[in-house]
């Protein structure tokens, strides 16, 4: 055996001994709790709301709580008429766009907005806002995927005065 082979053997033995010793000293402790399956998957919220009919085909944007600043708005390329709200009973609508309690509506329809080359700037947006308090009532009825017959189930919820829904406005 030459010196080079002896060196490799010594390094291998030392590495093996260290690995065994390290495994004995560092023992992972599991602190994670087992995951319980609930049968509900992540998904979009089911927002049901009431507004005047003049807002139904208008593009929604979101303001801050004070309604002094725009916090979110869609890119014109992301808008299409399939996102229009779905009519429900008693003047309520199912949101298909992603609105919230601080949503306002622009004077532009989905079709008009989708033809823009880019989103308006802040000054243009402020001139397009139709009113600061268009939403009369709003409820979060939970994960959209929990419903078997979405429209039918929501109409029953409306008849039952949103019992199991969270009132947002």
Description:
With about 170 residues, the chain is an alpha+beta fold. It has one domain (about 45-165). The chain has helices at about 5-25, 110-115, 120-130, 150-160; strands spanning about 45-50, 60-65, 70, 85, 95, 105-110, 135-145, 165. A hairpin with a 6-residue loop joins strand 2 and strand 3 (about 70). The chain is globular and about 40 Å long.
The helical percent reads 25-40%
Count of distinct strands? 8
- The string of secondary-structure elements, in order, is HEEEEEEHHEHE
Q: Uncertain spans, ≥5 residues at pLDDT below 50?
A: 5-38
Q: Which structural class matches the secondary elements?
A: alpha+beta
Task: Describe the secondary-structure layout.
Elements (H helix, E strand, L loop, with lengths): L2 H23 L19 E7 L6 E6 L6 E3 L13 E2 L5 E2 L8 E7 H5 L7 H7 L6 E9 L6 H10 L6 E2 L2
Antiparallel strand pairs: 1-5, 1-7, 2-3, 2-6, 4-5, 7-8
List its salient traits.
single chain; 169 residues; alpha+beta; 3-stranded antiparallel beta sheet; 4 helices; globular
